[in-house]
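Q: what sequence does this backbone want?
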């Protein structure tokens, strides 16, 4: 699983420690962390406490697929927390050792044998010098893993076997010494300031020496004159001046040197593959201070070995150990440490004490001579850590009783359709246990510990010896029987089980070796092969066996070497087998004939070409297009599941297929199991540990899908989850009032009503059937069905056909566990949510909340400290070890258990409970910031989901009652006592979830600090920023709430530091923004052909000026640069596929640029959030300054950028830009082209009526619908924040549109495709919103508002109906009056004029009427007179409109009478809700009704 999804891993380690075959070690410069790499690819991080000499395994890093050859620190600066690892297949990774996150991954073609981190002069960051199986020295940037430059050889180029870097005194460059495998010493002089990126630097000097295949080369740091070179057979000292040999010492018998270093200027230490090290004193000709330096070595002056560094018990090691020597500067000199890790998993550390010359003389005088033995200071291993734990770490099968030494788990397989975990064991048995119940049993307290049938296992016995592999064919393809489970063992057999009954269906024994792998052929094979399974054996054979026919189809057994991979070529009926020696065997599956054997390049090409045709087209739900068919099938067969499914599909059609039959839901998570269980083994001989992966998005989708399935469309509308009626009402007004349109609207409403009735009918039917079940009706039906099944089966057997699934014999299967064929998905989902929320909740911080969680919400307290994991880049994992506790022992609070419980429990259980309490309250939040972020996102999103589900709980019984009540409440009327009690209970539940959310969103840092913690790790703002527009709505809202809270908690100073850090990544857009509003609806075409789209865009910008005017564009053009543009990465997740390299670029360059672009995107979102919520504070730096301008331009660019392959139309980054422009519009407004922004947002939400539900709707949407909903919400925020800006801008665009509409025919323009025409519904919705919520601003801009409303409302609606019927919201203002007889609308303006709209002629005339704002206007009933009143002027006027002769000419409106009115008090003028009104009592008499109730009559 990648980092795109929010996934929480939890590890069940088991009773046995994982194998840790160490092949590389690293002790950090601060002597606080030890890192060990293994031959199996894992890396272990150990915490080391020098004062107490305590070594504790903290976490295991899983990701490398081969042996970790070398480790290095990414930086030598104090406090650096990053390391680099390299494996023998070329994988390089950068890790954060604080939490184990993988920050960067690079697969190199070069395999490194040694890596050295070095701080070069005048370079802020360290550089990584790497050598290996290639003829150069590669210099990397350790954080990006980008090759900066290389050191190459002109003379005798060869593999570099050893390297050393030094900086001579009084020089401003570095000297790099390299030694090739053929014995050539190379000297390079390097200054990075003079090196161009990617440039090769050649050596300055070369010399041939007598040292072949050197393992290490070290220059003495004390004098920089002597050099130690170590080979397998000897070590030598050379003079660095001319590289002349000074001395040579051979290896002790039976051992091989592995490396060495200088202890002092005259002492060296050498270590061997035997697991011990030797300390020598150098001869005088090797000591620089001696007069005999560089002279010929005398016979009596030899290197003197006086010390041996070895463990207390020297054991024979199968593999050579890994060593590291490090000298730590201290005040008294240097602390010399030697670190060793071996294949047994032991980590040893020696403190090497200095031996003075006087002590050395005394040692030499003692006879017989004895070397000084240095005993290890620290000796620890994972096995010792596991043995010290009491009780042992929990395993997945610890509940099995009567097994003191249970067999190891050798194979694991999770079955999501059954909710079970299958575990094959060393004794040949297979255990099937319910996964969630087993997890609850081991990790959580609760009543389930007293249930005798809880997590009851099923045991399958049939193998003789270890079970090597398991396969569930139906999980790979639906063509297999759901009941079949296949297992392969060490006894050469393959067994097919009916896992529902526990019977052995068939046993295949066709291969002559243990079965190591089971596979399923692709679905495009022939029908016969599709019913087969494929097995790989240790005898180098591959077999195809038909489960349906129960016989062998193909046995491919002529391979000479072990099998590496099995590929398929279905269109040619080929099975392709790749062996360890590189050969490829091609078999014909139907005939069993060996077609050919390939070697070399041909073999590689065949293997690489196989994947192109291996994937078949999976079946979809196309056959379920008509839900009515399934509805009536369900009614006919009384299948409640079919009825619910059909009704749910009907709701989806109501939501997303009203106009274009397009489903708006993103179905990628609808069939994903929220829980996956994966077996984990660090070595093939280990027992399986198990990693639980909780997929948060899948869990939320499953919960909401079950909830929404219970709701009719009317209920969804009532809960504000959809807005179809509101949008439909607006949509009717914006379209012509034709009979066809009316029929269509009526059909949609009937469709909604029909499915609402269907849902209600299904609920009533279910209730009635349950009532009838009391009389035994359903049980009789079931019994008769079973009888029919028995008869059919006996008939089939009499014909001679053996059924694929065996019916259990009632007499022979007494006491056997049977698995139900129908898993309760809802109950399993609730159990998964219960487990996850219980493990993540902060128990012990709020006692009253803990009580609420246990008794009302259904959470359970953990039994043990939980070993969490963390997923990072490329799916690499960090798994917390059970031996480590985040709270140090000396900071542990006192034990706080009830006295009676403390007396009852044994001491080890008391200690375990105490550790669990400390971990769940504070230790959980002290592990790392990344883990805190993921866990808070999970808690808050799930709590909000459960709160939104009509206050759901995690108690199964209570949840069933709640859903039954939802079904029964549809038919019940009135407020009965049960309804009132249920409502009160829901209020309590909602308050509980709300308190839990508040604790983990706002109060957590303070509560953790009150519990005694001083090292709370706050959430990482960059992770929250990248999830600002997450695909899952609930995760999105949780990320936004947490990020806003964290920014507020930082304070102004913290935000200032954050702004300074991320503003460096903010792109600066000095070029003009794109001048055309992007067309998001055709983004697929743009992605398929980006280059033609850019060309056409250029042509359109130059030739279609009129169309630009429609879309509010200027005359500038967007410059397209030929080189790769450095623009923000549209995909915020780290798992998205990178772009293809351009000419002259390497894949590494593309990855590095993508990472930089991703940081740019994060910076834009982060600074956009800070500006939106804190930007109006001048201290934040977002005033009228450069930062606000750059951020606003970056946001506008993301919104307005043309759709292309590099910037698709609907991405989380674009949605984030839309959202932040809306939220922070008052801050960005001075720097934005408001018209462009509004038109772009309107273009995105032009289809809101058919695409977007409300913001409360939790199920994931397709990208188009999500962008549509976000843009609609952004427009609402802009209109609410700046109503005048929105209204005036839209009025100006409407006036421009009307001008073009009058000349459209002559200009040959199609205005129906323009944004203002397509987005009429959305514009009208926003105007309706503003009229209801921003009346004060509307009154000042009544003419502009009327212009916009009349643009959106189709004129046909005003022919037969009044404006108060068509759009009643605007008629609530006394400044607007409509006369249906004359089809005129009059609107009073703030400047005293009256806007007279002639609907027949589509014209508007401005009449200067008053000197002050017009308060009210009103037409007489016959339409002959118009009255206007100005409260500020205290004047009332009558107006009459006269037309020309026979209706020709221009109509004129003139004032016929004017009256002075009584002045209105100032306090009344200031209240817009108490304005006077004009009411006609006859065709010539109008009444001025004042706010206090007084009336004044006036005659025309």
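A:
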């Amino acid at each position: 699983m990648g980092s795109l999804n929010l996934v929480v891993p939890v590890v069940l380690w088991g009773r046995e420690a994982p194998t840790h075959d160490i092949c590389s070690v690293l002790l950090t410069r601060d002597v606080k962390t030890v890192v060990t790499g293994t031959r199996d690819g894992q890396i272990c991080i150990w915490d080391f406490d020098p004062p107490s000499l305590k070594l504790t395994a903290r976490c295991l890093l899983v990701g490398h697929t081969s042996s970790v050859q070398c480790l290095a620190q990414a930086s030598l600066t104090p406090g650096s927390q990053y390391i680099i690892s390299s494996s023998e297949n070329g994988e390089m990774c950068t890790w954060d050792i604080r939490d184990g996150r993988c920050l960067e991954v690079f697969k190199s073609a070069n395999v490194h044998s040694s890596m050295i981190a070095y701080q070069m002069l005048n370079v802020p960051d360290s550089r990584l010098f790497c050598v290996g199986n290639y003829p150069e020295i590669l210099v990397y940037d350790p954080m990006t893993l980008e090759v900066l430059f290389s050191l190459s050889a002109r003379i005798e180029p060869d593999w570099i076997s050893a390297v050393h870097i030094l900086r001579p005194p009084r020089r401003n460059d570095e000297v790099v010494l390299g030694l090739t495998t053929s014995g050539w010493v190379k000297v390079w002089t390097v200054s990075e300031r003079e090196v161009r990126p990617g440039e090769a630097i050649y050596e300055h000097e070369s010399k041939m020496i007598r040292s072949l295949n050197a393992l290490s080369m070290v220059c003495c740091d004390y004098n920089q004159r002597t050099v130690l070179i170590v080979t397998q057979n000897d070590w030598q000292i050379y003079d660095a001046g001319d590289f002349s040999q000074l001395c040579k010492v051979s290896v002790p018998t039976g051992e091989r040197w592995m490396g060495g270093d200088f202890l002092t200027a005259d002492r060296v230490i050498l270590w061997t593959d035997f697991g011990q090290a030797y300390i020598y004193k150098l001869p005088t000709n090797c000591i620089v201070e001696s007069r005999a330096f560089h002279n010929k070595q005398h016979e009596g002056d030899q290197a003197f070995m006086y010390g041996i560094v070895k463990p207390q018990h020297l054991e024979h090691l199968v593999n050579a150990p890994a060593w590291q020597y490090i000298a730590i500067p201290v005040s008294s000199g240097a602390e010399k440490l030697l670190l060793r890790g071996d294949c047994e998993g032991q980590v040893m550390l020696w403190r090497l004490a200095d031996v003075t010359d006087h002590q050395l003389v005394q040692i030499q005088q003692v006879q017989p001579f004895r070397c000084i033995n240095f005993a290890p200071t620290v000796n620890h291993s994972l096995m010792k850590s596991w043995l010290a734990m009491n009780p042992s770490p929990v395993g997945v099968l610890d509940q099995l009783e009567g097994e003191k030494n249970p067999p190891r788990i050798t194979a694991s397989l999770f079955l999501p359709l059954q909710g079970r975990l299958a575990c094959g064991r060393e004794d040949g048995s297979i255990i099937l246990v319910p996964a969630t119940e087993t997890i609850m049993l081991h990790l959580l307290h609760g009543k389930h510990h007293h249930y005798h049938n809880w997590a009851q296992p099923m045991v399958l016995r049939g193998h003789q010896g270890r079970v090597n592999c398991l396969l569930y064919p139906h999980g790979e393809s639906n063509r297999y029987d759901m009941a079949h489970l296949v297992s392969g063992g060490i006894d050469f057999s393959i067994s097919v089980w009916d896992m529902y009954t526990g019977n052995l269906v068939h046993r295949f024994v066709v291969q002559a070796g243990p079965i190591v792998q089971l596979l399923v052929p692709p679905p495009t094979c022939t029908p016969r092969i599709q019913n087969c399974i494929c097995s790989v054996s240790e005898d180098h054979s591959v077999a195809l066996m038909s489960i349906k026919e129960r016989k062998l189809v193909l046995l491919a057994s002529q391979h000479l070497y072990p099998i590496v991979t099995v590929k398929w070529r279905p269109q040619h009926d080929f099975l392709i087998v790749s062996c360890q020696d590189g050969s490829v065997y091609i078999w014909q599956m139907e005939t069993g004939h060996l077609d050919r054997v390939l070697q070399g390049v041909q073999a590689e090409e065949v293997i690489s070409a196989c994947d192109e045709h291996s994937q078949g087209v999976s079946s979809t739900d196309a056959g379920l297009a008509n839900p009515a068919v399934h509805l009536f099938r369900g009614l006919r067969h009384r299948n409640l599941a079919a009825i619910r499914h059909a009704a749910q599909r009907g709701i989806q059609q109501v939501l997303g297929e009203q106009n274009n039959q397009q489903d708006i839901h993103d179905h990628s998570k609808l069939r994903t199991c929220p829980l996956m269980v994966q077996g984990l083994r660090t070595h093939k001989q280990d027992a399986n540990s198990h990693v639980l992966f909780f997929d948060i998005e899948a869990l939320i989708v499953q919960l909401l899908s079950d909830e929404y399935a219970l709701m009719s469309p009317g209920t969804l509308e009532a809960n504000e989850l959809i807005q179809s009626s509101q949008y439909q009402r607006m949509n009717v007004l914006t379209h012509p009032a034709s009979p066809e349109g009316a029929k269509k609207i009526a059909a949609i409403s009937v469709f909604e009503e029909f499915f609402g009735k269907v849902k209600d009918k299904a609920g009533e039917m279910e209730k009635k059937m349950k009532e009838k079940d009391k009389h035994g009706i359903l049980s009789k039906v079931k019994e008769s069905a079973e009888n029919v099944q028995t008869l059919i089966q006996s008939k089939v057997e009499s014909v001679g056909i053996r059924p694929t699934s065996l019916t259990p014999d009632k007499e022979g299967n007494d006491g056997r566990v049977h698995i139900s064929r129908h898993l309760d998905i809802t109950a399993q989902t609730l159990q998964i949510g219960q487990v996850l929320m219980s493990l993540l909740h902060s128990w012990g911080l709020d006692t009253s909340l803990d009580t609420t969680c246990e008794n009302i919400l259904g959470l359970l307290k953990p039994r043990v400290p939980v070993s969490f994991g963390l997923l990072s880049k490329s799916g690499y994992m960090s798994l917390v070890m059970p031996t480590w506790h985040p709270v140090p022992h000396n900071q542990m609070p006192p034990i706080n258990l009830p006295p009676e419980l403390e007396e009852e429990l044994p001491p080890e259980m008391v200690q375990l409970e105490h550790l669990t309490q400390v971990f769940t309250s504070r230790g959980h939040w002290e592990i790392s910031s990344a883990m805190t972020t993921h866990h808070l996102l999970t808690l808050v999103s799930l709590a909000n989901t459960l709160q939104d589900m009509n206050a759901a709980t995690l108690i199964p019984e209570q949840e069933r009652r709640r859903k039954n009540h939802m079904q029964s409440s549809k038919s019940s009327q009135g407020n009965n006592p049960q309804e009132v009690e249920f409502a009160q209970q829901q209020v309590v539940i909602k308050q509980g979830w709300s308190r839990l959310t508040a604790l983990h969103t706002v109060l957590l840092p303070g509560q953790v600090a009150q519990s005694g913690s001083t090292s709370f790790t706050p959430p990482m703002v960059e992770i929250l920023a990248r999830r600002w527009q997450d695909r899952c709505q609930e995760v999105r809202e949780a990320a936004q709430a947490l990020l806003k809270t964290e920014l507020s908690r930082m304070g102004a100073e913290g935000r200032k530091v954050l702004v300074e850090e991320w503003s460096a990544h903010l792109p600066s857009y000095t070029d003009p923004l794109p001048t055309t509003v992007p067309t998001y609806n055709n983004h697929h075409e743009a992605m398929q052909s980006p280059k033609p789209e850019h060309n056409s865009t250029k042509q359109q910008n130059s030739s279609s000026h009129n169309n630009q005017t429609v879309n509010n564009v200027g005359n500038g053009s967007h410059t397209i640069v030929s080189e790769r543009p450095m623009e923000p990465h549209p995909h915020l997740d780290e798992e998205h596929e990178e772009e293809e390299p351009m000419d002259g670029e390497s894949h590494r360059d593309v990855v590095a640029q993508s990472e930089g672009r991703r940081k740019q995107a994060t910076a834009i979102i982060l600074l956009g959030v800070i500006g939106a919520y804190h930007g109006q504070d001048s201290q934040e730096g977002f005033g009228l300054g450069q930062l606000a301008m750059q951020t606003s331009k970056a946001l506008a660019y993301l919104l307005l950028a043309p759709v292309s392959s590099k910037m698709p139309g609907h991405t989380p980054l674009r949605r984030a830009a839309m959202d932040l422009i809306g939220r922070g519009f008052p801050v960005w407004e001075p720097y934005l082209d408001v018209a462009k922004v509004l038109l772009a947002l309107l273009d995105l939400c032009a289809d809101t009526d058919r695409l977007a539900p409300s913001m409360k709707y939790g199920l994931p949407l397709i990208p188009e619908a999500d962008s549509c909903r976000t843009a609609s919400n952004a427009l609402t925020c802009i209109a609410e924040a700046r109503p005048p800006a929105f209204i005036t801008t839209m009025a100006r665009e409407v006036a421009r549109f009307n001008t073009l509409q009058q000349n459209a025919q002559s200009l040959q323009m199609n205005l129906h495709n323009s944004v203002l025409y397509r987005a009429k519904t959305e514009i009208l919705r926003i105007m309706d919103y503003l009229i209801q919520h921003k009346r004060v601003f509307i009154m000042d801009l009544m003419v502009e508002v009327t212009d916009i409303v009349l643009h959106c409302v189709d004129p046909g609606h005003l022919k037969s109906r009044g404006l108060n019927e068509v759009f009643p919201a605007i008629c609530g203002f006394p400044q607007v009056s409509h006369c249906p007889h004359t089809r005129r609308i009059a609107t009073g303006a703030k400047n005293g004029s009256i806007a007279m709209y002639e609907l027949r002629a589509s014209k508007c005339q401005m009449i200067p009427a008053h000197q002050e704002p017009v308060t009210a206007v009103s037409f007489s009933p016959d339409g002959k007179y118009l009255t206007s009143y100005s409260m500020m002027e205290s004047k009332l006027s009558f107006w009459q409109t006269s037309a020309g002769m026979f209706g020709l000419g221009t109509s004129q409106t003139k004032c016929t009478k004017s009256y002075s009115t009584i002045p209105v008090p100032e306090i009344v003028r200031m209240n817009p809700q108490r304005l006077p009104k004009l009411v006609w009592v006859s065709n010539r008499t109008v009444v001025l009704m004042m706010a206090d109730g007084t009336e004044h009559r006036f005659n025309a």
